[in-house]
Amino acid sequence: MALSCQPLGSFPPRLSVCVLLIVFVAAASASHDAPQDGTHDPTNVTHKKGFPVLLFNYDHVRTPFEISLWILLALLMKLGFHVIPRVSQVVPESCLLIVVGLLVGGFIKAIGEKAPALDDTLFFLYLLPPIILDAGYFLPVRPFTENVGTILVFAVVGTLWNAFFMGGVMYGVCQLEGGQLASVDLLSCLLFGSIVSAVDPVAVLAVFEEIHINELLHILVFGESLLNDAVTVVLYHLFKEFSAVGTVTVLDGVLAVVCFFVVSLGGLLVGAIYGVLGAFTSRFTSHTRVIEPLFVFLYSYMAYLSAEVFHLSGIMSLIACGVTMRPYVEANVSHKSYTTIKYFLKMWSSVSETLIFIFLGVSTVAGPHAWNWTFVVVTVVLCLVSRVMGVIGLTYVINKFRIVKLTKKDQFIVAYGGLRGAIAYSLGFLLPDHPMKTLFLTAIITVVFFTVFVQGMTIRPLVELLAVKKKKETRRSINEEIHTQFLDHLLTGIEGVCGHYGHHHWKDKLNRFNKTYVKRWLIAGERSMEPQLISFYNKMEMRQAMMMVESGSSAKLPGLISMQNIQPKVESRGRTIPKISKGREEEIRRILRSNLQQTKQRLRSYSRHDLFADPFEDMNENLSEMRFRKQRVEMERRMSHYLTVPANRQETPPVRRVRFESDDQESSRESSGVRARNVGPYSSPADAISVLEESPPLRPNRRSDGGARRKTGEPPTQARRVSDPGPN
Amino acid sequence: MGALNSLPDEPQYVGLAEKTGFSFEQIGILHKRFKQLSNNGETLRREDFNTIPDLLCNPIRSEIIEAFFDRRNFRQTDAVGTVHEIGFGEFLLVMSHFRPPSIRLDDEQKEVIRTEKLRFLFNMHDTDNDGTITLEEYRHVVEELLSRSGALGKETAKGIADAAMLEVASISMGHMEPDEFYEGITFEHFNKLLKEFEVESRMNIRFMNMDTTTLCK
Question: Where is the signal peptide (chain A) (predicted)?
Answer without folding.
Answer: 1-30
